[in-house]
């Protein structure tokens, strides 16, 4: 246990978040997402797991992970097939966590385009989220220098 770090962030997740650089994507996926096969194509090459609801995982991740402010697609959600404008409760909950750290409004990404983005990501965290379309992409930003 470490002080100041959310206890749901395990050692493997912390390692990956620390290793990522500005512009790298992190995928936070629901339990139905093909996380293992997609993660094999990522930079990390293996799936990470946090068996908690998506919004809890996003809250914990964002306690240590800055969101990119230089691009329009820094926060994204998988769109509902055939209903791209539908916002499900799981999406609202995750958006609330993103907004709590002054992050952007999430954009929608079509299902297969989301899979393609996920394969190019640095890492995939599979959550215990069982609600459909609980899949999100967060692009890493920068940690500014301390101001003296």
Automatic annotation (TrEMBL):
Gene3D superfamilies: RbsD-like domain. It holds the Pfam family RbsD_FucU. InterPro entries: RbsD-like_sf, RbsD/FucU_mutarotase, RbsD_FucU. It catalyses: alpha-L-fucose = beta-L-fucose; beta-D-ribopyranose = beta-D-ribofuranose. Keywords: Isomerase. This is RbsD/FucU family protein. It comes from Tateyamaria armeniaca.
């Amino acid at each position: 246990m470490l002080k100041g770090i959310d206890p749901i962030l395990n050692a493997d997740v912390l390692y990956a978040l620390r290793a990522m650089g500005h512009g790298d994507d992190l995928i936070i996926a629901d339990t139905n997402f093909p996380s293992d096969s997609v993660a094999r194509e990522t930079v990390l090459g293996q799936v990470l797991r946090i068996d908690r609801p998506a919004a809890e995982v996003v809250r914990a991740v964002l306690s240590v992970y800055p969101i990119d402010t230089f691009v329009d697609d820094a926060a994204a959600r998988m769109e509902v097939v055939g209903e791209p404008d539908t916002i499900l409760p799981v999406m609202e909950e995750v958006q609330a966590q993103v907004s709590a750290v002054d992050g952007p409004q999430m954009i929608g990404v079509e299902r297969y385009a989301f899979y393609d983005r996920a394969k190019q990501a640095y890492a995939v965290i599979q959550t215990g989220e069982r609600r459909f379309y609980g899949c999100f992409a967060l692009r890493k930003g920068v940690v500014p220098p301390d101001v003296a």
